[in-house]
Amino acid sequence: xxxxxxxxxxxxxxxxxxxxxxxxxxxxxxxxxxxxxxxxxxxxxxxxxxxxxxxxxxxxxxxxxx
Length: 66
Description:
Blueprint: H1 3-36, H2 42-65
Helix pairs in contact: 1-2
């Protein structure tokens, strides 16, 4: 491992944590709305799920580099 690589991994981990912290509450809010019977436009559902998949991919990449 080179000296500079450790800092990049830590920075990536911080970004991943912030992304999860932002996306998880939004996903829970969408799930609550769907269960409550609120009609949500399909584009918002697709966008929300795409965002979740993107964050999961980011988490996988960060954990793979550790």
